[in-house]
Amino acid sequence: MTEGLFPRERAVVAPGAVHVPGWLTAARQRELVAACREFGRGPLTYRQTVLPGGGVMSVRSLCLGRQWVPYRYLDSVAVGLPDWLAALGREAVAEAYGADGGFAPDTALVNFYGDGARMGMHQDREERSGAPVVSLSLGDRCVFRLGNSAGRGRPWTDVELASGDLFVFGGESRWVYHGVPRVFAGTADPSLGLTGRLNITLRETGRS
Ligand SMILES: O=C(O)CCC(=O)C(=O)O
Question: Does residue 180 line the site of ligand 1, with CB under 6 A?
């Protein structure tokens, strides 16, 4: 009933974890969706990752720049991280923290959430750098769960991420468990031309 009646406010959700609703303009979101489509045309494609235990992730992903495989980064780069995307990551850190802190991402993980896809609680711990993780959301709204660094359980804070939202987690929140327990299917603005949800995370791997 109250949805859309009140502006969504910028918030520091936890120390070092900043949510900036609607950071990307509608035009920028459309450009990013088009770019994500292009990234998947080859040689990279969106694939479900098979975990070492045999589980298969429900999201479909691709990696620009340094390749992530469970649970490490490969030395090889199949497709480089575009400079414009790294620059957007720097802008994002400056927006969240007031300065970009020299953020120099060398990898972007692009996740596509189709029907029923979600992401379990996990830590982004394969990076050797303590630089923040920048997350950009496009398409359907979701619940993003920001937990703690001790384990997958409570306490956690649920944040609703919508298309165009920026979420940066660094500092004390850099190593917290986090996940996406729910995506609200069909909530994307039809003018975006995306069915489902895309999430781009930019990271510094800390590898030479
Ligand atoms: O989809 C999201 O908002 C989070 C993605 C994520 O946790 C990850 O790529 O490690």
Answer: yes
